[in-house]
Protein 1
Amino acid sequence: MNSIKITEEDCRQILIDLKWDSKPKCNCGCTKLYFLSTRNIYKCSSCKKQFSVISDTIFKSAKITLKKWFTAIALVEGGNVSTVQLGKVLEIQQCAAWKIKDKIKKALKEEDKIVLSVSELMK
Ligand SMILES: [Zn+2]
């Protein structure tokens, strides 16, 4: 597993590529965006909505780094990881690990494009 070498910025770029085909875009269809780099947030020049690469993805559901999410996806996809082990690896409480594991399992079952692609990348 290559989770050790991957950086947070790599993860973010991977998500930008997967979600928007490398070109960030607002839900309204507009591609003219302002980027607030301190918070990694985009602001749409048409509808003024603010969003980020994790909006509308499972990554929004827990406040852990993308690197940890990617590691979690690899572990859950790989099979027999317990919530105790997952919590240790991610340095979070077991109940939080359980929620993350549940989210990932559901996403894999529903063939979430982004989660499936990340699990492929992490093999
Ligand atoms: Zn917009």
Protein 2
Amino acid sequence: MPISPDQATEIAELRANTQPTLRATVPGMEAHLYTAHEVLDHGFIRVIDYMGDDSAICQAARVSYGRGTKSVQNDEGLIRYLMRHWHSTPFEMCEIKLHVKLPVFVARQWIRHRTANVNEYSARYSILDREFYIPAPEDLAAQSVVNNQGRGEALSGEEADRVLRYLKDDSTRAYDHYEEMISQDDQQGLARELARMNLPANIYTQWYWKVDLHNLFHFLRLRADSHAQYEIRVYADAICEVVKDWVPAAYGAFEDYRLGGAQLSGKALDCVRRMLAGEKVTQETSGMSKGEWREFEHLF
Ligand SMILES: Cc1cc2nc3c(=O)[nH]c(=O)nc-3n(C[C@H](O)[C@H](O)[C@H](O)COP(=O)(O)OP(=O)(O)OC[C@H]3O[C@@H](n4cnc5c(N)ncnc54)[C@H](O)[C@@H]3O)c2cc1C
């Protein structure tokens, strides 16, 4: 269960406790504050705090005294200009703090993004919950035959049943032993910091993750991408939905230039020019490697 009834009550209490402020607030973000958005079978993301809005980006870019806003249209144009020209520091003026509950193997990929502040639930101090990520049958995919780093069709039949059974049984058995080892009933009880080494990588952990908007966009560009593993991509997708409501103009520019756009090498650009001039360009005449050509063709 992503959120227990007690936690739901706590969140409702937090949301009922409103306070006036002089700081910039965003109605869409206020609606998200504290609320858990479920991801995978037991995970979630929830916004704990945020700073800044679209205007804050323009305000910083113009280093202005007031809100820095000209008109909404003007601001959107400036934000698109900043994004287009990789002028990143104004985006760093906005920050977001998320509470994330995620499987440990997803956390290992996530933590590679070093430009964030993290505080993780302590499994030395606390006891981890009996919660494991078990993929839905349609996500239980076979190894891809074309991409070593990917997956293919969903497993089926007896193999799917057996894999699912292994995942569930192994998780349950490991957790039973974990509980037994830390128990202090009629025994000393192994230290929690040691007992946890027996737990599988699909157990859930939690952390607070604070990041500025520039580095968040970098994270989202890599992890909301089709090349990212499904289990981290669904978190990135959930964060995208929140960011849309927080900084709609900045997100719009990010979606257009980064998620929807593509970067072309000098050779690729040359091919586009030659194609526009009516030349039939092939991989052999492109100057690109087979891999580059395949990716180039995929763009269109
Ligand atoms: C599809 C995919 C597959 C991957 N496969 C693998 C894999 O097989 N093995 C593996 O180990 N990793 C893998 N990664 C992780 C990847 O290599 C990066 O570590 C991860 O995406 C974090 O990116 P980053 O370093 O740009 O992000 P951040 O750590 O957030 O850094 C953001 C930017 O800040 C700068 N920066 C941050 N720290 C430093 C520093 N110490 N020195 C210089 N510049 C710095 C860099 O410009 C960097 O791009 C994969 C990632 C993806 C998206």
